[in-house]
Prior knowledge:
This protein has 246 residues and is an alpha+beta fold. It has two domains: 5-108, no CATH class; 116-216, no CATH class. It has eight helices and five strands. Helix 6 runs antiparallel to helix 8 (201-216). The longest helix has 17 residues, at 167-183.
Amino acid sequence: MTTARRFWIEFDPQECPDARFWQGVGVTGIDVRDCLSMVADLVLDGLLPPVLRITADISLAEPLPVNPPLLGVPVWRGVWYPPVNLGTGPTLSIDRRGAPFDYPTPVTESRRRTRASEYLRAKTTWWDEIPHIDGLLWPLVDIHRAERGRGMRHYAPALRDAFARDPTYGDMVREALDYMIAWRPTPDEWFDPTEARFADQRELDEYLRAFRDYLFGSRPEPIYLRGNEALSPDVDHDFRRTSEPL
């Protein structure tokens, strides 16, 4: 009898248009291609982004790479993070046609996973009390990294769309951003995890407020720093930003 296995699949977020998959996908299936095909069924055009890492036999007794408010049923064959199989039940048919042939060799988790947030906490203390930090590293930190470059124009709208599809996720990010804005991390504290430089506190405060107002308010665009994106021409700001066209 074939035994189903749990896999955690991580895609390249810069090539992934679906924000649901930016932090990884939890899926149970017969083998890697079986799992990839079930994930491909959730993509509009059936084409998966590049796979960065596959962890086989991931333990649910240890912390996952995310701290989700809800999981599906990991013992069912199908996608359980995002919790797709809560609505569909177990996947019964097997069709590997949507699975790519080119993907990394799966690794087996042999020790306790160290959450990225634990690394951050070892270096800085201001992260410790941010609500839901374990599951929100992408919208709170990773999306703001200097290395993301021009990708912010893609990431920010996709993130806002993700909140529309999953209001619970949006509520968590809103609460966390409100905390960060109230806490007012210093430019040095902000640079530590993001490598994004701000000349003074005012610049950083305005950047965070603009990001929140774009995601949850009526602001048409977030603030794009120099080296990332062009500013909207109807937005007047005076620090380290550019209005050069893309």
